[in-house]
Amino acid sequence: MAPSLDDEFRIVSASGMMGTGFLESSLERALEFKPHAIGCDSGSSDPGPSYLGSGKMAFPAASMKRDLRLIVLGAQKLGVPALIGSCGMAGGEPHLQEIFGILKEIVKEEGLKLKVALIHAEQDKDYLKQKLKDGKIKPLGNAPEFNDAVIDRSERIVGVIGAEPFQKAVEMGADVVLAGRASDTAIFASMPMMNGFGEGPSWHAAKILECGSASVKQRKTPDCMFAWIRKDHFEVMAMDPDLECSPQSIASHSLYENADPFEIVENSGTMQIKDAIYEAVDDKKVRVRKSGYKHAPQYTVKLEGAELAGYQTVTFGSIRDPYMIRQYDDWLARLKVKMKERIKMVYGDTLSEDDYAMNYRTYGKDGTMGSLEPTTEITAHELCLCCEITANSQELATALAGMYRHQALHLPIPEWQGLITGVAFPYNPPYLERGAFYRFNTHHVVETDDPFEMFPIEIIELGA
Amino acid sequence: MTEPITDEIRVVSGSSSLGLGFHEDSLNRALALKPHFIGCDGGSSDPGPTYLGRGLSSSPLSAIKRDLRLLVLGGQKNKIPVMIGSCGTAGGAPHLDRVFGALKEIVKEEKLNLKVALIHSEQDKDYLKEKYRAGKIHELGNAPPFNEDIIDRSERIVGCSGAEPFQKALEMGADVVLAGRASDTAIFASFPTLHGFPPGPAWHAAKILECGAASVKQRKTPDCMFAWIRKDHFDVSPLDPDLACSPQSIASHSLYENNDPFEIKENAGTINLTEASYEAIDDRSVRVSGSQFIPAEIHTVKLEGAEFAGYQAITPGSIRDPYILEGYDEWLARLKDKIKIRLDMIYSDSLKEGEDYSLNYKTYGRDGTMGPLEPVKVYDTHEYLMMFEVTAKTQKLANDISEIYHHQALHLPIPKWNGLISGVAFPYSPSYFERGAIYRFNVHHVVETPDPLEMFPIELVELS
Lengths: 464, 464
Known about the structure:
By secondary structure, chain A is of the alpha+beta class.
């Protein structure tokens, strides 16, 4: 029997991301608080465009299955829905199907009977072209060019699901909702709102919950977070007794992943948390009041697309010779010239500089921050040079990497005579092939008056 | 053989390794000096066991073909033989085949008529077992264990051809000799000793020649080297006018790749340089006299084998936060613990570290290059690069563990920061590279064989 909805909506977020784990003891404790739903985000665009482009999941299926099994069993024990958003990282069709496949295994292994809602987020290219033609696709700040050709060459474009399809899926009686790419917050805001709780506290609580226990004072590992959402405020607490929330830790979480900590844009409007007040309930629990939510005049759905950007081969090699490090900039400049000469020698005019790109990145100097690095003097006794070659084919990128290895390995310096071996390549072959890699190619929203039209919901009954 | 050569043998070495390049001008200058043959080494075990195991070449085929074309055309122009040793890096059957394929294309493109000798170096496993059972395989210093199991599980074992198969190929009338794995020096010593020149100067000159222009005073790029081998001495000189040899540069080359600079072992004996003296002829050429060759009592052939060592995935990630760098040892120790706990959580007892997988953490900016041999103990740099290396029974397991590592490392908390931190910068998406199957060298042994030809079948092919 599901817990009754008295004057609050209780919800637990299992982890910051499904597949990164949580303590079983934390989920068990959460279940004792009788949540009305269990939610978990399962994706992000943070790990980059390759997942969206290749259709691969970021975390091992075994880790996904472990987390999903515990979430589903917990929800079944209480008779409450389990909501999973952005399935399999990028939330495209292959990602959603892979998570659905894992769920089917769990259902079989545990002898469950479930009504599952699949919310599809991968977009039909003709639909997008029509929207574009109708002038309903609008660029966000610093958006790249978008047109029919971009749509065509995209490996995959997903829309970001808002709260409404989750609400619909729950209304349709789903025990488990598996959604494609979705707003992280929509997973958690959907159910309290449909039960009449305020949009302000619902969305703000959701924003805290979507990262699991990430907003505690001192984090250990990904873990469960619990919220009590009431008419005019919400309270949050981590489920691991070792973890603590403070007004500062909760307030500062608005700075995480947001361009503006006070106004956070969702499909249907904007969270307004400038006036929010954070108070300690005790040394573990925080109460948040005065969170607002302002509806947008136009409902929008953000798009995420990825296209093939080429093939890359990367070579790491370290430099430990103090003489080389002392003249590193000059050494690297000479290496670049040698590489150009060598490529010319082998390929003559059959290869132009437009056919490939070479990028050199030096760790111990400015490998992480590039031109933003404020430190100008190299103090390290050891550098690691990473040479990235991008080409239209893996074969060419790797062929050039083979030449690079030899040119770098024996590049002479004035202090040493004879044949020197100046770079230590840790692997053989020295290069690592990245294969096809992708770039994000949209930063746009679709204007749509129907929050459901881009996200078909499929209901499937699983189990005996 | 046409007519006996009595005064001197002139020889040019094309480059230090076929595919690493040389100046066309240098080769043309060499051809004007009327060499009796052109030689070029084509391989090494230096780039590691993966080339032998996987059948790969370390230089791109396009670069190998460029060098081979110029050498073969030069040989044809002067009507002299061209001999290539250790074809395609590791000199196994696929390597020899690859270079032979390039030669066939060249013959077609240039409309040549060639008699080609292929010297095969890849060893038959039954032959080796027979030799092993007969007690004719002996270990060298620090050799790993060797037995029939090791022969069976080797991906490939090659023998190092001596001078005799090259001599035989010349006697058979070959215009071009392509040899599998061969002693680098044998390529160059074969011809003069076949013509009755004393082995001392012939082998020592060969030792200099096999690295191309590597033994000049100040090297620029791989290039040609010329030698005049006479009865009691030899002269060497580089072909690029910018390069110069000095007595010191030539003498010091004996320190390169040898553990003893005075006694260098070959199949048929030992080059003895104890009495060698080096004099400048002019400011670019050196004369060497007093070199000796002491024949061995038993002819031996060195073996090189590679066996499969697992699948690897590599994750590079940089650390730029001064607080993490300050407490790095402790940070890394906690990370290792977290990974262990997380792997236990997902795989429980189904996987064992050391059996199913092994993990290695390598930090550039500390001791990434030298490991425990690193003498610097105080690390003064603002940036590290950490390489996480997983070796596992399957590529999928190595990849999965890399994904788990990524997330644990990315957000590992430190006491100085509250909340969710992102402490490691992973430059790629996905953050790991698949290395695929990796190999290890598994023999350090010689085969005793009175017949220097029996392990190296020679195949004569007419190309036109």
